[in-house]
Amino acid sequence: MKISWNWLSEMVDLSALSGPDALAALLTRRGLEVEEILPQAQGFERVVTVKILERNKHPEADRLSLCKVSLGSGEPLEIVCGAQNMKAGDIVALAQIGARLPNGLKIEKSKIRGVVSNGMLCSETELGLKKESEGILILPETTPLGEPLAKILGLDDTILAFKLTANRGDCLSHFGMAREVAAALGVKAKRPDAAALPQATVSPISIHLDAGEAGPQFYGCLIDGVKVGPSPAWLVKKLEKMGSRSINNLVDATNLVMWELGQPVHAYDADLIEGKEIRVRTAKEGEELPLLDGTSIKLAGNELVIADAKRAVGLAGVMGGGNSEVRDSTRRVFLECAEFDPILVRRASSRHQKRTEASHRFERGVDPAGLTHAIARLSSLVLELAGGKVAGVASARLPSRAQLASREIRVAPDYFPRFLGMKCAPEQALKILTDLSCEVVKGAEDWNVRVPSWRKDLSLPQDLAEEIARTLGYDQIEETIPVLSSAPRSSWEDSSAGYVLMNQAKDALVAAGLSETINFSFTSRAELKAFDLASSAVLVNPLSEELEALVPSLLPGLVKNAIDQWSHHFGSESLAIRLFELRPTFSASGPIQAQGEMETGVKEAWKLSFVVSGPRYAQALQVEQAEVDFYDIKAIAESLFQALGARGVRLLPMSESRKGPHPLFHPGQSVEILAGNEVAGAFGLFHPGKARALKTRAPLWIGEIDWSLLAKQSRSPVKQAEFKPIPSFPPMERDFALVVRSDLPVDKITQVALKAGRPLAKAAKIFDIYRGSQVAEGMTSVAVRVIFYEESRSLQESEAEAASNQILAAWKKELGAELRG
Amino acid sequence: MIEKLDVIGKQALEDLKSASSLELLEQLRVSLLGKKGALSEVLKGLGAVSADERPKIGAAANEWKRRIEETLEARKAQLETVALEAQLKSQRIDTSIPSRLSHRGTHHIITRTTRRLLQTFQRLGFDVTTGPEVETEFLNFEAVNIPKDHPARDMQDTFFMGPGVVLRTHTSSVQMRTMRSRQWPVRIVCPGAVYRSDHDATHSPMFHQVEGLWVDRGIKMSDLKGVLAFFARETFGPEVKVRLRPSYFPFVEPGAEVDVSCFQCGTKPVSTCKVCRGSGWLEILGAGMVHPRLLELAGYSGDDLTGFAFGIGIERIAMILHGVPDLRLMFSGDSRFLNQF
After folding, report:
1. Per-residue confidence (pLDDT) for residue A330, from 0 to 100
2. Could you say which of A322, A366, A375, A788 would form a disulfide bridge with A337 (CB–CB 3.0 to 4.6 Å)?
3. Higher pLDDT, A316 or A489
4. CA of B37 to nearest chain A CA: how many angstroms apart?
């Protein structure tokens, strides 16, 4: 929304303000935010209109002229000029000494080839008005002399660009804004004049409100004998400032009324209205309507249209019809000023993608009491600009508009300071509300506040409180801290426990040297397909194909992060990629549709996923450095499980998976994660086939865990880990070198040892593994340490011996393991 | 005999003082003080000495023994020091060799910032609550007083998933979810991702917010201002001030945009300031007093029941706090960015 300072000054006395900056500050403080202040002329100071009295040759230079110019009064000035397009008698623009032109040129008193020049005659290029121009600017003969050029060009103005909130439709015009400024300054706003129209006469065109409350009032005025032609300069300039192009005097008049009063109005060629009637009615399905902008729309049937006896002639509140528009040949014009239902206008404008200045205003609601003045103003303007005479006035309005009931709000004056937490005496509140054109009727305790018809946003005491607060200034609101009226919610039952656990998981992965990343929740279907994935939750209106499918897994995004990083890595060392993400994934079991007010049918499953690649250490000498392998990843997973106090989490070789191999993992270098008895995810080497297809540069280790399943096995953040006694007797250790089949998972060895060595064998661990010439083909030597311990006493050698023998026997029987000879 | 002892003693002290190694010293100890050592040998002749002389000789012998032991210990300590020094010298390593450094992981600054904000609000008595990112149109819009066909919907370009289902455009959707599930008083902060179909240098189709809601008897607008001022000071520094400007959000009345004074250039803004670009103020959040329509939709009733609500953009705060110039870095997954914090 643009407001011109000069235009606004016609309606309200701005002399109390130092200038546009002060106005902008005042209105922004009141909630009408000024986004930009655009001075129309910069660098035009000291540029004035002059008449060339004489044009002579420069005595020393053939290509230069010496002009004598007059400012209308005072001594003529001598100016040296290089242009050729002027002659004596022309009125031109003189940049006087001290001027600084828009292109940066500073005008100083100077000698040019020995002759003093008292300024410079300017071209449009030098004035920044055009990119290119030939010669200097020659102004019309009637131009007054000695006047600032900016004023002559109508550029002595400043435009304020507002970012208005949706509740202040009443400020979408100069008069609307003038009312607001007047309230702020405690003065009165002056509405643009209009000669009163004759009372409704027998109009040759009748009006019918067929759509009821959707189109509750309509004023028409028929003017005969108009002459369509160009608008006068003042009107063209006003419209240009609003960023709108002059069309002809009739159309320009309608636009001017809208910018002045905020009421969109329209002009029809009355001869194109068939059947001498105008109807506000609901569209017929399939009805065609050619529009002013040259397009044609097919109506859906729920729009509001303006129609004559045969067809729609306008999309109500949005745009006039192309079949009834004012043309150069128009002699009779029918003027429309009406009120339409905001919701219907909004639906029609969005359905047909016609967002217009008119629809913008109707959506926000026009002043229902402002129509009679708007039609009078429009008629006056048309008569003034295009001649002709009023041939008939017609109006129709429903009872709801014939007797406009003003909204009343009951409020006690002490409500304002109490609710706002700021000082506000009743008389202050009274003045503020009255200045805003509210009528306050004082009762015994309460006030009855009648709000003006244009303030559709005021209906509650809270709304009035905002008016009070923004007038006094939000800076007058105190700063207080509310008192807790009850204890905070118990963290034992708080739904935030899950949030705390997630943070614990993040902390554990950060401690393991992984960095958290956040990817968008949506990606392209193609990208998912590359991972053998598909989304069951796709956006209806995505920004692009790249961002349309809600992700069923975080892994595609993480792998893409890795690939992106390789693409900008040029060093000779391998690149450390260590990322994790803990975010929701999305799925739906059928078409997505709301079920009641609270259910969407879309399942959000949080996943904890990671990618790791590159060197084991962030920094180390080459002899000690290595690339990460499966066991580094396993360590990350185990440290996570430990940090969460997770119990019942097991790792199963992918080859033994009940579900079969996972397409994203190397079947021989990955595991499935079992939480309780449910498959909670997997980690391991990214499948080499996929890696090749995606052109990954190095082995990539990936993992994804279903967060809710892991969380279920984890210790609740409100529960504490329980103390276990510290051993007070020395344990006994026995080391064994076993030879087993190479395909035996070594954890079977420790599992068997712990079972067979019960109750004394408390721990068993693999501490070395050897495959090679010292053992038979297909066999592996495994070094195992078993730790025996009894809580209440020291063990005898013989007891450890006996337990060891049991273990050896079990190893042999269950695993075929022999002691290495 | 005393003369004999003196000769042995003097010689012994000299030998001990000049002993060049710990081994030699040990040999000397044995040859002097051992059972068959020089002193013992002399004292074997004690039987032939008169009873008068014996105590004197005994005393002399003890004196020599003491002096020898003393000298021996002193020399031993001396030699041990030398040996240790030699050992230390030979064991010197090059401490300038690069360390064996483990990888350092980092939290995303969105997480860091969210945690920091939540801690601040938790100190004031707020509880953390979350809600789904895919939300019903009702909870995202109608329940926060933005009916269908309301122009305020233009403020938030919405992603639709299907009839009546949207990606939430703000964490305000958690307000009604929570209010419908518990009685007042309500004091919650709700962190999470939100979505709007807007993508350019300063808008991301996914971003994060923390929603705050406090509903109780007699809550006033100054409470909102006080809570936000505390939050601003905790987040940006003790000198920071807040400024409320009137604005409009359908779920609050009165509504406000909230600015904090620039913590970099403060009360005297400079045009070159990278934080506020010379305005002296940073726009950080929207807030207001809970619209009575929301309390009605929640089924709440009670005399003088009021509340305040606010919505903070996490990315904006994180960018200000860490001096991040470009929003897009947040979602780049680029370690060169992530590992900095």
Report:
1. 94
2. A375
3. A316
4. 46
Position of tokens 């969109």?
Answer: A264
Kindly tell me if the per-residue pLDDT of A266 is higher than 80: yes
Q: Which of A116, A159, A217 is nearest to A2 (CA)?
A: A159
Alpha helices in A412-524 (DSSP H): 415-420, 426-435, 461-472, 497-511
Per-residue pLDDT at A263: 97
pTM value?
Answer: 0.85
CATH 3.10.180.10 fits A2-40+157-185, yes or no: no
Nearest by CB: B101 against A477, A510, A618: A618
Residues in CB range of A286: below 8 A, 6 or more apart: A298, A299, A301
H-assigned helices in A109-173: 149-152
Please tell me if residue B201 touches chain A, with a CB cutoff of 8 Å: no
Complex ipTM: 0.87
Interface-testing mutation among A415, A518, A548, A578, with chain B (most B C-beta atoms within 10 A): A518
Dig out the tokens for A249 from the structure: 């005097």
Q: What is the pLDDT of residues A40-52, one digit of tens each?
A: 877 778 889 999 9
What proportion of chain A, given as a percentage, has pLDDT over 70? 99
Residues 6+ apart with CB under 8 A from B146: B152, B153, B250, B251
Which residues of chain A make contact with B165, given a CB cutoff of 8 A?
Answer: 592-594, 600-602
Q: Which of A26, A364, A515 to mutate to test the interface with B (most CBs of B within 10 A)?
A: A515
CATH no. of A732-819:
3.30.70.380
CB contact under 8 A, A521 and B225: no
B133 touches chain A (CB under 8 A): yes
Task: Inform me whether the C-beta atom of residue A459 falls under 8 Å from chain B C-beta atoms.
Answer: no
Q: How many CB atoms lie within 10 A of CB B157?
A: 16
Does residue A636 have a pLDDT over 80? Answer: yes
**Ranges under pLDDT 50 in chain B:** none
